Amino acid sequence: MYLEYYGLTEPPFTITPNPRFLFFSAKHREAFNHLLYGVRERKGFVQLTGEVGAGKTTLCRAMLEQLGNRYATALILNPVLDADHLMKAIAMEFGLDAHAMDRLEILWLLNHFLLARAEQGQDAVLIIDEAQDLTDELLEQVRLLSNLETDDHKLLQIVLLGQPELRDRLNNHHLRQLRQRITVRYHLRSLSRYEVSRYVQHRLEVSGAKRGPYFTRPALWRIYNYSRGIPRLMNAVCDKCLLAGFVQQSQRISYRMVGRALRELEGKIYV
Predict the structure, then answer these.
(1) How many structural domains does the chain have?
(2) CATH number at residue 179
(3) Residue 251 — very low, low, confident or very high, per pLDDT cuts 50/70/90?
(4) Which of 168, 174, 190, 219 could bridge to 229 as Cys pair (CB 3.0-4.6 Å)?
């Protein structure tokens, strides 16, 4: 609705994990490098945690783009499955026909697939999002997948993305076998108050902004105060702010406009 008014080519503050919009703060750059290092160096397990909306999935998609065609990838977005269905979902994500197979048959199929790729000098990576929702049984099943290996290296690199609860889960004594196999870990923290302005400007520029819209410093302070630097919350607020600016025909997004956006988001008065 407001794109033409602001001269934008696409919405700048969508909440979908689009790698083109990824803002590389120092924290996000470090997290990205941890992911790439763990996968490229065949470390077996990589763990990335962070608050809801911190940008974990976007980082993961950016990593997949960076890896290129040498890697076969399987991305599990909803791991709330039983062990049989999880194995089947992983195999199907790798493009394998596992519809009529049981768990052992799927494991054999995966091993054969991974060995064939290894012989061609190619790798495979499994990414499980929302990994804090995995049951203990599923976590054990994922650990067993890491046993697929040659004398030289792991055949499957596994990335676990999750909320901070994942760290707490893996600290349990009965999951120590899995925890000991995770050699690359990073916890993604939210943006600082000083990074908010750069984040907002970055997304506007990616969307084709030339001169406007313009967020005032008090407006940015209020956005940070509400979102605490969580990108997804910032996106939701900023999108409402641009709509409020469009309604008032203003290129300048003020502190008051942010308040209006927050009231609409929360369905209540925000002071």
Answers:
(1) 2
(2) 3.40.50.300
(3) very high
(4) 190
Token look-up 């942010």 returns: 258
8 & 51 share domain: no
- In this predicted structure, which of 40-54, 76-90, 118-132, 175-189 has the lowest mean pLDDT? 76-90
Query: Tokens 């509400």 correspond to what residue?
Result: 226
User: Which contiguous run of DSSP H or E holds residue 249?
Assistant: none
- 34 with 74: CB under 8 angstroms? no
- Between the alpha carbon of residue 187 and those of residues 27, 160, 219, 227, the distances in Å are 9, 12, 29, 18
pLDDT at 271 over 70: no
The encoded tokens of residue 218 equal 């008090």
The span from the CA of 20 to the CA of 17, in Å, is 9
pTM of the model: 0.89
What is the distance between the alpha carbons of residues 260 and 264, in angstroms, rounded to a whole number?
6
**What mean pLDDT is predicted for residues 209-216?**
89
The residues, ordered by sequence, that sit 6+ positions from 237 with a Cβ below 8 Å of its Cβ are 223, 226, 227, 258, 261, 262, 265
